[in-house]
Amino acid sequence: KQEVTQIPAALSVPEGENLVLNCSFTDSAIYNLQWFRQDPGKGLTSLLLIQSSQREQTSGRLNASLDKSSGRSTLYIAASQPGDSATYLCAVGDTGRRALTFGSGTRLQVQP
Amino acid sequence: DTEVTQTPKHLVMGMTNKKSLKCEQHMGHRAMYWYKQKAKKPPELMFVYSYEKLSINESVPSRFSPECPNSSLLNLHLHALQPEDSALYLCASSNVGRSNEKLFFGSGTQLSVL
């Protein structure tokens, strides 16, 4: 059974810092990996999707990498802003099941 | 239109009530999902519909009954719920059979069972 772990569970940084969120998964037979953002009590917004054949994806200040063989992904946020404060969730899609398994998330607080 | 719309946004119900959650998308997606999320926990998959047919049921209790009347609509019928069923219920949709299966989520229904 796929297990997804995110480290750290919580992170507080001053505005302007570059930061890295980590995600690891136990079964490398995935078809994609997605990073989501969730504000309190709200739905999830997809930030980046990396196909299993890709190594990274970029969108604005966000860059996500994927190392399928080692079961790891990172989300890099450049020049963090208070508006980036949210919970960031990593989710992997399994090839057999075609449904997402989520990590527990990293709660990010960016201090002005 | 890249939205998944869920109604109602909030719902309070007693353990003997029957209620329904509704979800709608007009992106032409043929896969639709129900997830349950408890506070400070990740979403947990409940059901997946693919081409209006139930393809995954994650051993969800029968007091939750999904329905997919057509390719744009997904319902979740609730009956005789327990207080521990209180959670945020999220609907999502995606393309089926394409490599870029980005998942689009609705804003959720915050359910409280008294």
Q: Give the overall silhouette of chain A.
A: globular
Structural class computed from helices and strand pairing of chain A: mainly beta
Characterize the biggest β-sheet of chain B. Answer: 7 strands, mixed
Q: How many E strands of chain A?
A: 11
Got a strand count of chain B?
11
Can you give the mean pLDDT of chain B? 92
Question: If you compute it from the alpha carbons, what radius of gyration of chain B comes out, rounded to the nearest whole angstrom?
Answer: 13 Å
- Helix percent of chain A reads under 10%
Rg of chain A, Å, rounded: 13 Å
Description:
The complex is a heterodimer of chains A (112) and B (114). Chain A has 112 residues and is mostly beta strands. In chain A, 0% of the residues lie in helices and 60% in strands. In chain A, strands 2, 4, 5, 9, 10 and 11 form a 6-stranded mixed sheet that branches. The radius of gyration of chain A is 13 Å and the shape is globular. With 114 residues, chain B is mainly β. Chain B starts with a strand and ends with a strand. In chain B, 34% of the residues are buried. The interface between A and B is medium-sized, with 24 and 24 residues.
Could you give the topology of this structure?
The complex is a heterodimer of chains A (112) and B (114).
Chain A: E1 4-7, E2 10-14, E3 19-25, E4 30-38, E5 44-51, E6 56-59, E7 62-67, E8 72-77, E9 86-94, E10 100-102, E11 106-111
Parallel strand pairs in A: 2-11
Antiparallel strand pairs in A: 1-3, 3-8, 4-5, 4-9, 6-7, 7-8, 9-10, 9-11
Chain B: E1 4-7, E2 10-13, E3 18-25, E4 31-37, E5 44-50, E6 53-57, E7 64-70, E8 73-79, E9 87-94, E10 104-105, E11 109-113
Parallel strand pairs in B: 2-11
Antiparallel strand pairs in B: 1-3, 3-8, 4-5, 4-9, 5-6, 7-8, 9-10, 9-11
